């Protein structure tokens, strides 16, 4: 028996954490058991190489670490998480709600590659994680599409309000735009459910987006 896996995906600053939180609040309200997971798992030993990469200790720009190497850093963290944390709950039929997953590599790492190399990379990525590592495939991927200009504004406001230092992905505006363009193509290739999170040049309200998320989630719950 296996459970269900709902994944929120999107470029940095698109509202993944907010929509994950709103869906979890809904599940709690209606007594639906679930587990919430976030990737990468900062502070855990399995995420050490991810943190080295994002901190710029392996290169100051995202492209300094090739897509395949960076993807393996994240895959190790997901595998450890599955084995140590939520795998048994999922295998017993439980519902998992994930803020990022394998899909994040598809968004961020495939963006480093020329167009002709992206499909072979995606085939490699999903084979590594879903077949060889045995991680579950998502039942629903909700891709939160937000224009890059708006995500950059949100990231800068978040830095100012929290004092947190942006990682090498968040600092590189050109890279963020590449990720956004790539993600639209990946979402189409992988049949992700796309929610456009801006209207008229402004972000839609979290509550408005949440209503659309629920329409999608209820189809698999």
UniProtKB/TrEMBL annotation:
- Give residue ranges for domain Thymidylate kinase-like: 8-195
Pfam name, any one: Thymidylate_kin
Catalysed reaction, written as an equation? dTMP + ATP = dTDP + ADP
KW Metal-binding (keyword) present: no
Q: Which UniProt keywords apply?
A: ATP-binding, Kinase, Nucleotide biosynthesis, Nucleotide-binding, Plasmid, Transferase
Q: Which is a Gene Ontology cellular component entry for this protein?
A: cytosol
EC numbers: 2.7.4.9
The EC class name is transferase
Protein function: Phosphorylation of dTMP to form dTDP in both de novo and salvage pathways of dTTP synthesis.
The name under which this protein is listed is: Thymidylate kinase
Which organism does this sequence originate in? Pusillibacter faecalis
The gene name reads tmk
């Amino acid at each position: 028996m296996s459970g269900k896996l709902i994944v929120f995906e999107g470029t940095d600053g698109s509202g993944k954490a907010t929509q994950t939180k709103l869906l979890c609040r809904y599940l709690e309200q209606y007594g639906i058991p679930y587990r919430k997971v976030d990737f990468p798992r900062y502070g855990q030993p399995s995420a050490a190489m991810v943190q080295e990469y994002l901190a710029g200790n392996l290169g100051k720009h995202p492209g300094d670490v090739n897509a395949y190497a960076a993807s393996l850093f994240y895959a190790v963290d997901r595998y450890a998480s599955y084995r140590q944390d939520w795998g048994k709950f999922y295998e017993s039929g439980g519902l998992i709600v994930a803020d990022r997953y394998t899909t994040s590599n598809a968004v961020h790492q495939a963006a480093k590659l020329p167009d002709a190399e992206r499909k072979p990379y995606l085939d490699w990525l999903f084979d590594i994680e879903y077949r060889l590592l045995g991680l579950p495939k998502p039942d629903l991927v909700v891709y939160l599409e937000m224009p890059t200009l708006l995500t950059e504004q949100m990231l800068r406001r978040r830095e100012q309000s929290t004092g947190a230092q942006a990682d090498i992905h968040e600092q590189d505006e050109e890279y963020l735009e590449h990720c956004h363009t790539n993600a639209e193509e990946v979402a189409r290739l992988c049949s992700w459910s796309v929610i456009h999170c801006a209207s008229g040049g402004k972000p839609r309200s979290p509550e408005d987006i949440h209503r659309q998320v629920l329409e999608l989630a209820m189809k698999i719950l």
